[in-house]
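A further point concerns the way the authors explain their paired sequence and structure data. Each protein is reduced to its one-letter sequence and a matching series of backbone shape codes. An entry of this sort, consisting of the sequence and the corresponding backbone structure tokens, reads as follows:
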Amino acid sequence: MLLVSIKGGDFVIQFIMIFGFTFLVIIFMLWLNTNHNPNIMNTNTASLVGKDGIVIEEINPIESTGQVKVSGETWSATCNGTSTITKNILIKVLEINGVKLLVEPKAN
């Protein structure tokens, strides 16, 4: 870029070169981050999927009520189907739908 300026290059050519170089550096950094970072870790709510918890308020999917405790935090929860999950049953988190956890009873 400095060479273009020294050789009497036009401002437009300098701008295109700077933009192109910046674009290539950004693409390279994104590639480097996604392909060479083995320590990627889920954070926040995504880290709850797959974790175990306990029902602290009966889960009724028809009435859309119930609460569970997972990793020391209380969450609203629901389950698939129409059967309820009673209090003090161990559960596993399947996914997160908005502010509710979709859970299933944990198999012993």
